[in-house]
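TA notes, week 10

Several of you asked for a full example with nothing omitted. So below is the full record: structure tokens for the whole chain, then the designed sequence directly under it. When grading your own attempts, check the secondary structure regions first.
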């Protein structure tokens, strides 16, 4: 099945090809599904850099070793947070506050004033932890994994469903994706707003 892109920006587009075998298994193994993504090369725009010469640009990119070190640091920081948090017993600990904030996003319920204050406090005093929530807070990590699977299955199901009108596939995929990712997007928005206030 081929589907056209969701156009978020009128000047950019992409197209994807999705092929599936007759297997009825709901597995994502390469033997049962093959996914190909193609980009509309004609929508590419090149800009000339007038501030840095071409030879100097390579120095600005991360090397493989740099990326490996960043990932190691990121993972070690998350492990440190988990270790420190495991010793915390109070309801105002970083992980417990983040969990309650995330739960409010999942349940679409407002945060209590106390949780808003504690959330803002944690963001203000632990700016180095921002972005580590997915690894350091168990509830967020598990939820993200589950939602990612739900998203993949929703897209594949909509692409394979013969009852879905071809002209509606992209719209229905967008709607399903937005519904599934709503809690994560709301949590990210709350984090950004708290950072802005900090």
């Amino acid at each position: 099945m081929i589907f056209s892109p969701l156009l978020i920006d009128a000047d950019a587009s992409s197209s994807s090809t999705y092929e599936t075998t007759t297997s009825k298994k709901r597995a994502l193994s390469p033997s049962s599904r093959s996914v190909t993504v193609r980009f509309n090369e004609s929508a590419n725009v090149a800009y000339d850099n007038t501030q840095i010469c071409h030879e100097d640009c390579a120095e600005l990119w991360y090397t493989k070793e740099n990326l490996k070190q960043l990932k190691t640091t990121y993972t070690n920081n998350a492990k440190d947070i988990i270790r420190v948090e495991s010793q915390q017993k109070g309801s105002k600990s970083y992980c417990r506050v983040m969990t309650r904030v995330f739960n409010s996003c999942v349940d679409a319920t407002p945060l209590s004033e106390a949780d808003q204050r504690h959330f803002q406090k944690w963001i203000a005093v632990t700016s180095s932890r921002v972005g580590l929530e997915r690894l350091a807070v168990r509830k967020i990590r598990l939820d993200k994994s589950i939602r990612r699977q739900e998203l993949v299955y929703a897209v594949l199901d909509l692409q394979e469903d013969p009852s879905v009108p071809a002209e509606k596939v992209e719209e229905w995929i967008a709607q399903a994706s937005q519904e599934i990712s709503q809690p994560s997007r709301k949590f990210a928005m709350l984090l950004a707003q708290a950072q802005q206030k900090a």
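Strands lie at 2-3, 14-20, 33-39. Use that as a sanity check on your answer.
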